[in-house]
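Hello support,

Our group uses your service weekly, and this is the first time we've seen a run hang past the timeout. The protein is UPF0473 protein SAMN05192557_0509. I'm not sure whether the cause is the sequence or the server load. Input pasted verbatim:
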Amino acid sequence: MTNEELEFNNDEEVLTLYDNEGNEVLYRKLLQFYHPEFKKEYLILAEESNFSDEDGDIELIPMISTDDEEGQLLPVETDEEWDMIEEIVNTQMDEPEE
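Update from on-call engineer: The timeout came from a worker crash unrelated to the input. Re-ran successfully.
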């Protein structure tokens, strides 16, 4: 599959999500794409408070975006999806910005 078959949205934005205790947590959306093979929209997030890590390491959090009105985000559960996301993130994050 080539990148031309994927639909990417690289516009960064900050999302407010809630953790298990109901606390607000800010996440920066780093990448959003639709994958035609899995027929799903994926978001790659990073927690805003950890975004400027001293070592340059950022924990990326992949999520599946649902089509419902609430905009619910679901965790990635299959190994095939994890492998695909890892490949796409490595490719997209390593490309120089134009």
